[in-house]
Design brief:
Two copies of one chain form a homodimer. The first copy, chain A, has 156 residues and is mainly α. Chain A contains six helices and three strands.
DNA sequence: GTGAATTATTTCAAGCTTAAAGTTTCATAT
DNA sequence: ATATGAAACTTTAAGCTTGAAATAATTCAC
C-alpha cells in the first residue's frame, strides 16, 4: 500500500491500483489528523470514538458481536476497548435474562454526554479537513464508494 | 468513525461527514481483505508490504526518517518493522560514511525478488476488489482525491 | 573551539489489532 | 435427559502503532 509516486505506474489495470493508493493515503491522512485532535482535545482515541459512535445510535445497546461486525474489527479487539470504556465509566455491560452468554453494551449517561460533545467537534473537523471537496463532489464520491461497497457487502 | 447508517445524518455539512464515513469503510474493507490474503498466501503483513513497496521504488535505499514520512507513520514504528524485515533477510541497513546518525535501508536481493512476486499478486487483488469501479470512474475518483490531498500536502 | 540547538534514530509504555484457542451457554437431535 | 454442535464472548501471543523520552551525531553561533 501507499506505493510510490516516482515511477508512475502505467498499463492496464493501473488506474485501479492508483485509485487504491490515493484512497488509502487520503484516509490515513485524515485518520492521523483526527487521532491527534481526539488525543489533544479530549484525551481519547479513535477506536474508543468509533465504539461510542456506534453505541450512540442505539440507546438500548448492542451485543458485542454486533459491535464487532459493525466496526469491521475482530471480537477480541472490541472486548479490550469496551473494557477500557467501562473502566472509565462511559459504557456499561448489562447481562441479559434470556441468554447468559451475551451482554448488552450501552453508553452510560456520562458516556452519552461525553460523546455528544466530541461528535460535534468531530463533525466540524471533517468539514474543515474535507473543506476543499465541494458538496457536489462529496455526494458524487459517496455514490461511487457506496456502489463499490455494495459489491462487497455480505461476502464471506 | 464508521458511524451509522440508521439515523441517516442530514443537514448542512453532512455530505462531507457521510463521504468520510464511506471513505473509511471502503479502505478498511479493502485493507482487511488484503491483510488476510497477504497472511494466507505469503505469510506476511500489510506494514511489511508497505515498507517493502516503498523501498522497491528506490534501489539505493532510503533513510529511516524518509521512510516514516513517506508511509505516514511514526519513526518508532518503522524501526520495529524494519528490524523484523532485517531479521528475515529481506532488508539491510547500511551505515553511511557522511553522517553516522543515519543508515540507508534497502531491499536485499532476496527481498527484491520476494516483493516482486507479492506485488504482482497484490495488483491482481486490487483489480479484483475494485473490479466494479470502471476505469473511467477510477480516474475521476483519483483526481478528486488528489486535489483533496494537495490541500494537505506539507501542512505541519 | 565550546556549548547550545538541531537532527536522526532507537527505546519505552500504553494501547490497538488480529487469529487462534479456550470458556461458557444455548439449541437440537436423539 | 444427554450428547453434540453451534454461538457469544474472552483470553492469549505476536505484532503494529503512537507519543514521549533517551542517545548519539551534527551543525551553528559565538
Amino acid at each position: 500500500m501507499v506505493a510510490g509516486p516516482l515511477p508512475a505506474p502505467s498499463g492496464p489495470g493501473k488506474d485501479r491500483l492508483r485509485l487504491w493508493i490515493r484512497l488509502l493515503r487520503a484516509s490515513r491522512t485524515i485518520e492521523a489528523e483526527l487521532r491527534e485532535r481526539l488525543k489533544k482535545d479530549f484525551n481519547t482515541t479513535l477506536p474508543r470514538f468509533d465504539v461510542m459512535a456506534a453505541l450512540y445510535r442505539v440507546p438500548e445497546g448492542m451485543l458485542m458481536s454486533d459491535l464487532s461486525r459493525f466496526l469491521l474489527v475482530s471480537n477480541g479487539n472490541v472486548t479490550g476497548i469496551v473494557d477500557r470504556l467501562v473502566s472509565e465509566g462511559l459504557v456499561a455491560r448489562a447481562r441479559r435474562n434470556g441468554d447468559r452468554r451475551t451482554s448488552m453494551v450501552r453508553l452510560t449517561e456520562e458516556g452519552t454526554q461525553a460523546f455528544a460533545t466530541i461528535a460535534a467537534a468531530h463533525e466540524g473537523w471533517i468539514g474543515e479537513l474535507l473543506g476543499k471537496v465541494s458538496e457536489d463532489d462529496a455526494r458524487r464520491l459517496t455514490g461511487m464508494l457506496t456502489s463499490f461497497r455494495s459489491n462487497w457487502e455480505g461476502r464471506e
